[in-house]
């Protein structure tokens, strides 16, 4: 086989391997310094007013599955995400806030970002709405949802 074909093939294989590794890295959870709870615990604590539960997924995801009963929907991509969150907790950065997403990856990353930003009582719900390696998730556990009105 000509050298140019082998070099091109090697470049394509290396590029695909690197892209795949990057995707796997992004899908993995990072070390998180805070607390983690199950969807069952999150639902119960939110229902008793002991935590503020925030669903950080996108509006199209809320439309597809609903939002967990007792949760507030704030799209983590919103420029004013932190300001909206501060408003929910009356600007008390030590208030207990639990974050949930689809499968626990985004909530893990945002939980750590909020701790780094000065929030001191951030809780991750690593199972998410759809389930993850941490467990079956909100929906599979049969927990109630509310229809997204947006």
UniProtKB/TrEMBL annotation:
Cleavable signal peptide: none
Rhodanese domain boundaries: 47-147
Xref: SUPFAM superfamilies: Rhodanese/Cell cycle control phosphatase
Name of the protein: Rhodanese-like domain-containing protein
Species this chain originates from: Halocynthiibacter styelae
